C-alpha cells in the first residue's frame, strides 16, 4: 500500500497521520471524518514557490480554493505566502472572514453576479478573471459607477485538449469558459478592455483541464497565448504583464496514476514562455499558476466505520461504510478510483476482495470496487486515501446526512477546523407549513 506524506503504521498496526493515530481520531471525532496532513500541504506549497525562485521568474502561486475551502485552509495558505483563487461569493466571503489579504485574491468564475463583483471591488481584490462579454460589460459599468480601477485577466480558451476525463476538460474550443482565441472573441475582449476607463488589463488566463499527467498541453497553451499577445502588442499596444496558466496538475490516486513532480510542470512551462517571448522580442511576463488538487488532494484521508456486509455467492462481497456519495461524490460523478486500508489493521495482509458501498439510498453509491483487504468486521475503520480535493467541497446532504467534520493533523497534534453538522443544522433553514 502506498502511504502519502506523513502517513505510517505504528507498532500496534494502526494508521498514523501527522503523528496522530487514526484510531484515536475516530474515538475523539467520530466517523465519517476528513483528516488533512498539513505538513504535506506546506511542503507542496513551498515546492511550487521555490521552483519559481530557483528559475528567477516573478510569479504568483494561487491556491485554487474550489478544491477545499474553509477559513483554516485559507489561513494556512496565507502563512505559506500563497495567493488565492476564488470562484464564488461564498469562497470570497470565507477568504475575507479568514482575513486573507484581499490584494492576493483572484476572483474567477464564469457567471459572477453584480453583487459578487461589487463585493470584490469594494474589498479591493487583487484581480478579477473576466470570463465573458456579459461580465466585461457589467464590470465596466460597476467600476465606472464607483470610479474605481480594477485589474483584470481575460480567461481564454486556447483550443488545447488535455488528456484527462471528459467531464473535467475546460480548455478546449467547445467550453463554457472563457473567450476563444481562434474565432476573434478574445481579440474583441482585449479591445473592449483597453477602451474601458476603469479596467486595467494586466494579462491572460487559461485552464486546460484537471488531473493532467504531462506538460505538453500547458506548453502548447502558453505558446498560443504568447503568439496572440504578440499580435495584440503590434495592433493595440497591449503587452501582458501576467500569463496565468491555471492548474490541473495530476496526483497519484492509485497505482494506475503516474504523475510527474510539480516542479517539472513549472520548469517546462517557464522554459516554453521564455523561449516564446524571446523569439518574439517581448518582455518576460509574470507567470501565475493555480494549483488546487496538487496542494491538498493526497494530503486528505477519509475515515469511515464499517457496518453491514453482503455477499453475493460467486459474484461479489460488499462492505458498507457510514459515509459515501454524500461526502465523496467523485466515484459516482467521475468514476474516480481510490486506494484504502483498514486503519486499525494497517499492517495486516489482504485476504479478501470486497467492494465498498456507501450508505445512501442509491445503487450508484459505491466508493471502491474490488478492493483487496484483510478480513474486515463491523466496527473496523476504513481509511480512503487522497480525498483532500473535491471531497468536503462537493459534500452534500443527500438522504439528510450531515456533513463530516474536518481535522488538521501535524506534529502529533489534531485541530478541529470544521465541526460535524448536526441534525439541528440540517433543519435550521426549514420552515413549517403551518
Automatic annotation (TrEMBL):
Orn/DAP/Arg decarboxylase 2 N-terminal domain: residues covered: 40-296
Cofactor(s) named in the record: pyridoxal 5'-phosphate
Biological source species: Rossellomorea aquimaris
Pfam families, sorted: Orn_Arg_deC_N, Orn_DAP_Arg_deC
Function comment: Specifically catalyzes the decarboxylation of meso-diaminopimelate (meso-DAP) to L-lysine.
Keyword Lyase listed: yes
Name of the gene this protein is made from: lysA
One function term, GO molecular function aspect: diaminopimelate decarboxylase activity
Assembly and binders: Homodimer.
Keyword check for Lyase: yes
Binding positions (substrate): 293, 330, 334, 362, 390
Residues binding pyridoxal 5'-phosphate, per UniProt: 248, 290-293, 390
Active site: residue positions: 361
Enzyme nomenclature, EC number: 4.1.1.20
One of the GO BP terms on file: lysine biosynthetic process via diaminopimelate
Record-given protein name: Diaminopimelate decarboxylase
Modified residues (N6-(pyridoxal phosphate)lysine): 66
Functional pathway: Amino-acid biosynthesis; L-lysine biosynthesis via DAP pathway; L-lysine from DL-2,6-diaminopimelate: step 1/1
Family assignment from sequence similarity: Belongs to the Orn/Lys/Arg decarboxylase class-II family. LysA subfamily.
Limits of the Orn/DAP/Arg decarboxylase 2 C-terminal domain: 34-388
Keywords: Amino-acid biosynthesis, Decarboxylase, Lyase, Lysine biosynthesis, Pyridoxal phosphate
Reactions this protein catalyses: meso-2,6-diaminopimelate + H(+) = L-lysine + CO2
Organism placement in taxonomy: Bacteria, Bacillati, Bacillota, Bacilli, Bacillales
Amino acid at each position: 500500500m502506498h502511504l502519502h506524506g506523513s502517513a505510517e503504521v505504528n507498532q500496534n498496526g494502526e494508521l498514523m497521520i501527522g503523528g496522530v493515530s487514526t484510531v484515536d481520531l475516530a474515538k475523539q471525532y467520530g466517523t465519517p471524518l476528513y483528516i488533512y496532513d498539513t505538513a504535506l500541504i506546506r511542503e507542496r506549497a513551498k515546492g511550487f514557490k521555490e521552483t519559481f525562485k530557483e528559475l528567477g521568474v516573478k510569479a504568483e502561486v494561487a491556491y485554487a480554493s474550489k478544491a477545499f475551502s474553509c477559513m483554516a485552509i485559507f489561513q494556512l495558505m496565507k502563512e505559506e505566502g500563497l495567493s488565492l483563487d476564488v470562484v464564488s461569493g461564498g469562497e470570497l466571503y470565507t477568504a475575507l472572514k479568514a482575513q486573507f489579504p484581499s490584494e492576493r485574491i483572484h476572483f474567477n468564475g464564469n457567471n459572477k453576479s453584480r453583487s459578487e463583483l461589487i463585493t470584490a471591488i469594494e474589498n479591493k481584490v487583487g484581480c478579477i478573471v473576466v470570463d465573458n462579454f456579459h461580465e466585461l460589460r457589467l464590470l465596466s459599468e460597476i467600476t465606472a459607477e464607483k470610479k474605481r480601477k480594477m485589474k483584470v485577466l481575460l480567461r481564454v480558451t486556447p483550443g488545447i485538449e488535455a488528456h484527462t476525463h471528459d467531464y473535467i476538460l475546460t480548455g478546449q474550443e467547445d467550453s463554457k469558459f472563457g473567450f476563444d482565441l481562434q474565432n476573434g472573441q478574445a481579440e474583441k475582449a482585449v479591445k473592449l478592455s483597453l477602451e474601458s476607463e476603469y479596467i486595467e488589463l494586466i494579462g491572460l488566463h487559461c485552464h486546460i483541464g484537471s488531473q493532467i499527467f504531462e506538460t505538453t498541453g500547458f506548453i502548447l497553451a502558453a505558446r498560443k497565448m504568447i503568439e496572440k499577445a504578440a499580435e495584440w502588442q503590434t495592433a493595440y499596444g497591449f503587452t501582458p504583464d501576467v500569463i496565468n496558466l491555471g492548474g490541473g496538475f495530476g496526483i497519484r490516486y492509485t497505482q494506475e496514476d503516474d504523475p510527474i513532480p510539480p516542479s517539472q510542470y513549472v520548469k517546462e512551462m517557464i522554459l516554453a514562455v521564455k523561449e516564446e517571448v524571446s523569439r518574439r522580442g517581448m518582455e518576460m511576463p509574470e507567470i501565475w499558476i493555480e494549483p488546487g488538487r496538487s496542494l491538498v488532494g493526497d494530503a486528505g484521508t477519509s475515515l469511515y466505520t464499517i457496518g453491514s456486509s453482503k455477499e453475493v455467492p460467486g459474484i461479489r462481497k460488499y462492505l458498507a461504510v457510514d459515509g459515501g456519495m454524500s461526502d465523496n461524490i467523485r466515484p459516482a460523478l467521475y468514476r474516480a478510483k481510490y486506494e484504502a486500508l483498514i486503519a486499525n489493521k494497517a499492517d495486516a495482509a489482504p485476504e479478501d476482495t470486497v467492494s465498498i458501498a456507501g450508505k445512501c439510498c442509491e445503487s450508484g453509491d459505491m466508493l471502491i470496487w474490488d478492493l483487496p483487504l484483510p478480513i474486515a468486521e463491523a466496527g473496523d475503520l476504513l481509511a480512503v486515501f487522497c480525498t483532500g480535493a473535491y471531497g468536503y467541497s462537493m459534500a452534500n446532504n443527500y438522504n439528510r446526512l450531515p456533513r463530516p467534520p474536518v481535522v488538521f493533523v501535524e506534529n502529533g497534534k489534531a485541530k478541529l477546523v470544521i465541526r460535524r453538522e448536526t441534525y439541528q443544522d440540517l433543519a435550521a433553514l426549514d420552515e413549517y407549513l403551518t
